[in-house]
């Protein structure tokens, strides 16, 4: 498992069309959201829970990832609890430069994802780094590479909720 999420290009939500999920897809998604088995063979454990085989579970998850129903399977690290730093950031990019800017931002492994929004600051992204110094360095490099202002919106107080989508 990876500790970093894969960075993504900004997408408009309207460009994503729903995919068909069968009952087994739904069972797998429901199981892995909060209770992913921490075993040597987690997909075998999942298969046993829903009455199928490990190969079927792996094939289903590969398809769901290819069809973008899931982005990744991996831990969500509490960056601050392990001594790191994170922030929400936004950059003001001319419309003609959005794709290039998204690629620059996404090239940083510290950036987990970014979104295109119809606002003055139009690309929003999250950054998690091992230190505050590295986080500041990433934001500064992005601003310098793009030649556009970056807005840093650090967390003052976190109100964490746990989200599980029941399918």
TrEMBL record:
Occurrences of domain Siroheme decarboxylase AsnC-like ligand binding (ranges): 83-160
Catalytic class of the enzyme: lyase
Family annotation (Pfam families): AsnC_trans_reg2 (PF17805), NirdL-like_HTH (PF22451)
Keyword Cytoplasm among UniProt keywords: no
Gene3D superfamilies linked: 3.30.70.3460, Winged helix-like DNA-binding domain superfamily/Winged helix DNA-binding domain
Domain Siroheme decarboxylase NirL-like HTH: 25-71
Residue stretches spanning the membrane: none
E.C. no: 4.1.1.111
InterPro entries, per the entry: AsnC_trans_reg2 (IPR040523), HTH-Siroheme_Decarb (IPR050684), NirdL-like_HTH (IPR053953), Tscrpt_reg_AsnC-like (IPR019888), WH-like_DNA-bd_sf (IPR036388), WH_DNA-bd_sf (IPR036390)
UniProt pathway annotation: Porphyrin-containing compound metabolism
Keywords recorded for this protein, A-Z: Lyase
Catalytic activity from the UniProt record: siroheme + 2 H(+) = 12,18-didecarboxysiroheme + 2 CO2
Listed GO MF terms: lyase activity
Annotated family: Belongs to the Ahb/Nir family.
Name of the featured protein: siroheme decarboxylase
Provenance organism: Methanolapillus africanus
